[in-house]
Amino acid sequence: MKGLCVLGATGSIGVSTLDVAARHSHLYKVIALTANNNIDLLFEQCLVHHPEYVVVVNDINAAAFSKKLINTPIADIKVLSGAASLEFVATLESVDSVMAAIVGAAGLLPSLAAAKAGKIILLANKEALVMSGDIFMDAVADSGAQLLPIDSEHNAIFQCMPAGYHSGMQAKEARRILLTASGGPFRQMPVEELVNVTPAQAVAHPNWDMGKKISVDSATMMNKGLEMIEACILFAMKPDQIQVVIHPQSIIHSMVDYVDGTVLAQMGNPDMRVPIAYSMAWPDRFESGVEPLNIFDVRRMDFEEPNLERFPCLGLAYKAISLGGIIPTVLNAANEIAVEAFLNETIRFTDIPLVIERCMEKFSVTPANTLEIILEADSHARVIAHELVVELSA
Ligand code: NAD
Ligand code: MG
After folding, report:
1. Going along 259-393, which residue ranges are E strands?
2. Which atom of ligand 1 is nearest to the CA of 208?
3. In terms of domains, do 186 and 300 share one?
4. Residue 24 lies in a domain
5. N or C: more exposed end of the chain, with fewer CB within 10 A?
6. How many A from CA of 182 to the centre of ligand 2?
7. What are the Cα distances from residue 265, in Å, to 176, 218, 225, 251?
8. CB 68 within 8 A of CB 44
9. Domains in the chain, number
10. How far is the CA of 102 from the centre of ligand 1 (A)?
11. For residue 104, how far is its CA from the centre of ligand 1 (angstroms)?
């Protein structure tokens, strides 16, 4: 029996994780669930999984949640609040596996705490890895933690790696990664029309059902940019060894190209329960609840090269990783601010890359060798990105 902590339980990944956990309740016991705001869903999840701890980061919501528990069969759940409590539950003795599924930089400290505590980390929170790169991987190596990628592409790559492979190793015989992307909802829209797209259009992803932030990132392809950086860190590859491939059907989730000319691909229906179940069962496999792939329904698979004029965010991510140091942190922070401003209808869709590019230009490349430097770059970049948003919205 493994103890499970789900950081970001009420999000899209959190919900899929609990769906898989419920199918294997003889193998996983839910110890802790965390959420920011959605206490109604959290309450439903607690009725099913009866964790020992719950963290509701926002303290007003935490108080409201405690009230909801009174006179229920789950009144014994310990309710905590505040961001520091996320680190507390991620490092509990009784927790073996931590699903890191908070969106954005907010997930960095608890994910890193789990890494330092030597947990099995099921990592969905790509922003944390983009920000902290070497520090995160060093923490994993030093503590003997096991890092299993949840992002469908990285999970696919992990599955295509040689037997005995662990995250952070360089698989010498693997020469290239083919990182697939759906191309999002605007793959074929005339470029001059992108300026007018609305948040509702941007979050309507053709193949995947995800949280709002990652859905906008998929529409700009910043998601693939962050994933390219994530792949460099997880698989010890150089950016020029990672080829982004637009594959609109989202059936192949990524590929590894070996020196002998073999290309291994992992396929499946686009449902995050596949990579979640793979990581939760690893090194075995178990049932995920996902329908078997009907290859006859797929019929054809297409592949095209991304156009950086249509998707400038992807080019900015390549620039950020090649500059290195704190610049990927700056890219990520500016993107989070710009996406939020777009979702609030403060800036236009095409302003997102402008905010990020101008923000990146204001920073010089400083080595990101301490957590303090990274957190300082993150907050400084947010202030500058806010100013740029105000300028662009005027
Ligand atoms: P989501 O918006 O659906 O859920 C986010 C979760 O994080 C919620 O539980 C929310 O309460 C919590 N949260 C948000 N802000 C917080 C804060 N400041 N402090 C504490 N908790 C906070 O997001 P999602 O789509 O589930 O994505 C989660 C992560 O997984 C992201 O990093 C995303 O890039 C990654 N990911 C998601 C998918 C997917 O299919 N949804 C696929 C691959 C990777
Ligand atoms: Mg992905």
Report:
1. 263-267
2. 40
3. yes
4. yes
5. C
6. 10
7. 12, 21, 20, 10
8. no
9. 3
10. 4
11. 7
Could you tell me if 334 and 237 lie in one domain? no
Query: Which atom of ligand 1 is nearest to 214's Cα?
Result: 34
Å from CA of 35 to ligand 1 middle = 10
User: 280 lies in a domain?
Assistant: no
Pocket probe mutation, ligand 1, options 15, 103, 125, 153, max atoms within 8 Å of Cβ: 103
Q: Name the closest ligand to CA 250.
A: 2
Residue nearest to atom 32 of ligand 1 (CA): 125
pTM of the complete model beyond 0.70: yes
Q: Do 13 and 41 fall into the same domain? A: yes
Rounded-to-integer distance, Cα 286 and Cα 303, Å: 31
By CB atoms closer than 10 A (0-12, 13-18, 19+), residue 24 is middle
CATH number of the domain that residue 26 is part of: 3.40.50.720
Residue whose entry in the numeric block shows the structure tokens 């099921």:
122
Residue 174 CA to ligand 1 centre (angstroms): 31
pLDDT of the chain, 394 residues: tens digit per residue: 999 999 999 999 999 999 999 999 999 999 999 999 999 999 999 999 999 999 999 999 999 999 999 999 999 999 999 999 999 999 999 999 999 999 999 999 999 999 999 999 999 999 999 999 999 999 999 999 999 999 999 999 999 999 999 999 999 899 999 999 999 999 999 999 999 999 999 999 888 889 999 999 999 999 999 999 999 999 999 999 999 999 999 999 999 999 999 999 999 999 999 999 999 999 999 999 999 999 999 999 999 999 999 999 999 999 999 999 999 999 999 999 999 999 999 999 999 999 999 999 999 999 999 999 999 999 999 999 999 999 999 8
Give the closest residue to 148 by CA, choosing from 92, 198, 99. Answer: 99
Containing structural domain, residue 235: 162-269+294-312
Nearest residue (by CA) to ligand 1, atom 30, is 124
Closest approach atom of ligand 1 to CA 223: 34
Report if residue 275 sits inside a domain: no
Of 260, 282, 312, the position where a domain reaches its end is 312
Measured CA to CA, the distance from residue 7 to residue 51 in angstroms comes to: 13
Instruction: Write out the two tokens for 273.
Output: 């329960």
The answer, yes or no, to whether any atom of ligand 1 lies below 6 A from the CB of 106, is: yes
